[in-house]
C-alpha cells in the first residue's frame, strides 16, 4: 500500500468542505451490524448464572447509538423483552430505525420507540419514559446497550458527564444489565514509543499526529521526527494516530473521526465509575485487539518500538464491558435474613462434605475429577502452581484442545510462573529460572526476553497467514492461598496439592459474591499482566481508603516553604525537607503508580548480593523503605525490617504482610538482630547532605550489621545530574495526575527539582494545582569511598540493577556494594 500518498491526502483535508451525503454513507457501514452485536448480548444473557434464570418479559431495552435499530430488532425478536427505546443522533439512521419499528410492531407485537437527537439533550426525556415503564411493570429491569458510543460522548455531546449519566440511568430500576464495546486507552505499551508506517516519511507522520493532537489535545509531549521514517511520540497519541490513519477509508471518514478520541476510555476508571452506581464486583472488562486493526496494521506495514529499540506488538484497542446487578437486596429484612440463612446452611453442609477429604491422594483425585468436569472455563490462581500445572498438564492440554477457556496464574514471587498456550500446546515456565533460547542455548532469566520471544513467534505466525497467536501472562505478588474455579464453583485451599502435610483441608464455596469478586479481579489481572511489575503496586493502591479526599487535603495543606539557595548557603541537612515532601505524604498512595521502576529487576539484583557475602542471607534491613516496594516482596524470601522517616508511607506499607515496618531515622537506627544485608535504595542517601548526616548513618550501619554484612547504596549517577525538564502523566482512580519536573544543579553539587502537579478528580471534576520541591546532594564515587573507608570497603560499583553492568559516566545509576570491615579482618 502507498501509505505516503494516503497520509498526504489526509494532511490536506479541508474542514470547510463538508460532504452532506457522508452521514448516509457512514451509517451504511453499520447496516445490520447490530445483528453481530446482539448475538454477543444474547450469549451472555443465556450463559451467565444470574441472567440465565431471569424473566426478561418485564425488562426495558435501551439502545443508545443503536444506528438503524437492527440490534434492538434482533433482541426484541430473540428475547421476552417487549419494549425498547433507541436514542440515535444520526438523521438517516434514526429514520431507518423508525421504519423498522413498524415492522417490529406488525411482526412481533413489540414496541421500538425511537428518540432522535443528542443523548445529553434527550436524557431527561429518556429517564422520564423509563420511569413510566417502571410504573406499569411488575418487578421491572433494564438492559442497556451502548456499542462504541461512550468514547464519542465527551466530544460530541455537549455537557455529557459519565458519572452523572450512569448515576441517573441506573437509579431507575433495581435490576440493571449493561453491555458496551469501546475503543480504549493504550495498554501494554510504554509512555513513549517510536512508530513507522509503511513508506510514509517521518515528517508527514509528525504533521498528521499534530493535526490529531491539535484537535483532541491528547499529549503534551512534542512528536519528533527521527531517522528511517520513525517518529518519537506519546503512546496514547500513537494509537490514536494509527486508528485514524490505518482504519480511515476516505478523507471524509478521517474528518469525521477527528471529532472524537478513540483512546479516551480508561477501563479501570470506567469500571470504578459503573460500580460506584451498581455496586462492587458487578463489572467484567475484557480487553482485546480487533481483527480489523490487526489486518490494517499488517496492510500498512506498521512497526512500533520502545525507546530502547525493542519491538512492540499490537496494543489492546478495544474492550467488552459487561455489568450485571440484578440481585440487589430488597428492603425486606425478613426475606434478606431468610436468604442468608439458607445460603449459610448450604455452605456449611458443602464444607462439611469437602473437609472429609483428609489426605493428599484424595485431594489430588478431587481436583482431577473437577478438572475433568470442566465444560466452559477453568481458572486457577495461588501459590505453588508450578507443581500444580505440571501434575495436571495433560488434563489442561486436553481442555485447551476441547476449546475450554483455560487461564492459570501464579501470584507468588517465589515461583513467578509463565504460562504460554498456543492451540494444542501448553507450556509452563517458572520465573527466576533459566529460559533456554533458540540461539545457541543462551540462558535468560529476564521476563523481557520471554516477551520478545513471544513477539517474534507471533510475527512468524502472522507472516505464514495464521491468526491464532500465542498468549503470555505473568505476574508476581505476595504468597496467598490457592483458588481453583471450575465453571461457577470455587475451591479454596490453604496449601493446595504441593503441601507435605497429609492433613491439608479444603474449603468449598458456591456463593455469587465470592465468585463474582474472584472472577472480576482475575480478569483485571489477566488484562494487565504484560506491563505489571508486582502485585504490591495494586495492593497498596487499593489499600488506601481515603482516596476521595486527596484534593481537599492538598488544598488545606500547610506548605513547607524554603529557598534552595538558602539551604545550600547554610548547608543544613536535607532530611527535614524530605519529611515534608508531597510524594512522601499526601501523594504517598500514588507513589507506585507514578513510578516507572522495574521492581522485579531490582529484587533480583538485591537477591544476588548473597554472592558478594559468600553465604546465605537471612535477615535484611531496608533503610528508606518508602511504601515497601522492595521490603514486602523480599519478605517472601528473608526476614525483613524496613525503616522510613515518613509516617504516612509506613502506615501504607504496614497494610501489607511479611516485613516489619518502623517509623525511624536512617541516621540513627537499631535492630535486635544483626542484619546480613542492608539496602538503601533509590537515592535515599542523597538526602544526607552533611558530613554529620553521613557519619551517623555509617556508625548505625557499622554498629548493627553482622561482621560479614553487605551494604548496598543506590545513588544518582553524579555525571547525569544535569539541568533538564520533563513531563509525566499517570492515572490512579479517580485521579488524573499531570506532573512536570524541572531539575537544575545549584552550587555544583546540589540538585534541586521543582515538581508541579496538576491533579484532577475524573469523577467530580475537581482539580488542584500544587508545587513541591526536592533537594539532593550529589555524591561522587570518591566521596563515598573516603567517607565509608574506616568501616566498609567497596567491593563492586554497578551502573544498573545487574551484576553485569559496569559503572561509567553514561550509567543510569551508581550502585555501590560495600562489605563491612570486621574486627577479625582488621587483625
TrEMBL record:
Entry EC no(s): 2.1.1.234
Gene3D superfamilies (alphabetical): S-adenosyl-L-methionine-dependent methyltransferases, Vaccinia Virus protein VP39
Domain Methyltransferase: 620-707
Entry keyword set: Methyltransferase, Transferase
Enzyme class: transferase
Tagged with keyword Nucleotide-binding: no
Single GO term (MF): methyltransferase activity
One matching Pfam family: Methyltransf_25
Biological processes per GO annotation: methylation
Chain coiled-coil ranges: none
Stored PANTHER family: TRANS-ACONITATE 2-METHYLTRANSFERASE-RELATED
Protein name: dTDP-3-amino-3,4, 6-trideoxy-alpha-D-glucopyranose
